[in-house]
Amino acid sequence: MSISAYLSGEIHTNWRSEIITACSEEKLHISFLSPILDHDLSDSVGTNILGEEVNPFWKDHKSAKINAIRIRTLIEKADIVIVKFGEKYRQWNAAFDAGYAVAKGKPLIVLHSGDLIHPLKEIDAAAMSVAEKTEQVVSILRHVVMEQGKTD
Predict the structure, then answer these.
(1) pTM, to two decimals
(2) Are 8 and 34 in contact (CB under 8 A)?
(3) Contact, 12 vs 87, CB < 8 A?
(4) % pLDDT > 90, the chain
(5) CATH of residue 133
(6) Residue 110: inside a domain, yes or no?
(7) Does a structural domain hold residue 125?
(8) I need a surface site. Which of 28, 74, 82, 151 has the fewest CB within 10 A?
(9) Is residue 53, in this structure, part of any structural domain at all?
């Protein structure tokens, strides 16, 4: 079986590459999709394309809308959405992506530390699985793409 997975969430650690590398090493048939991971490029895409803004609200507004075109398109294309919540920043965008995925009927896997159980309880309740380690996410993905009758 072949699936696609959208990797949403924090951009300050290498969690995406850990999952992608592990799945590749196991020869799991999964293609991975993600938002733009260059924070500065993501924040300035609106003014880079549509022109400068004096007011920071409109600068962010332009970029958010252009980024949303990519994000919504890729979430709709994905078979599974995986959202990682990190420790350092509040990821409102990741929470929005999780809600959007659930609203679109996409299976949601949430990844975060045990310290975030209470603040993310509503998102966890909507997820099909909540993991604390990337290895757990890889195991879930392995199970999803496993061919019937095979255990390797």
Answers:
(1) 0.93
(2) yes
(3) no
(4) 89
(5) 3.40.50.450
(6) yes
(7) yes
(8) 151
(9) no
Range of the domain at 20: 3-40+79-145
Where residue 151 falls among pLDDT bands split at 50, 70, 90?
low
**Burial classification of residue 126, based on how many CB atoms lie within 10 Å of its CB (0-12 exposed, 13-18 middle, 19 or more buried):** middle
Question: Considering only CA atoms, which of 119, 126, 62, 123 is closest in space to residue 87?
Answer: 119
Let me know how long the chain is.
Answer: 152
Provide the token pair at 95: 């929470």
Q: Is the residue at 127 inside a domain?
A: yes
Distances (CA, A) of 3 to 28, 66, 116, 146: 9, 26, 29, 11
Closest CA to 145 of 54, 77, 80: 80
Strands 108-111 and 80-84: parallel
Burial-class residue 60 by CB neighbours within 10 Å (0-12, 13-18, 19+): middle
Number of domains in the chain: 1
At 79, phi and psi to the nearest 5? -85, -35
Confidence grade of residue 12 (pLDDT, cut at 50, 70, 90): confident
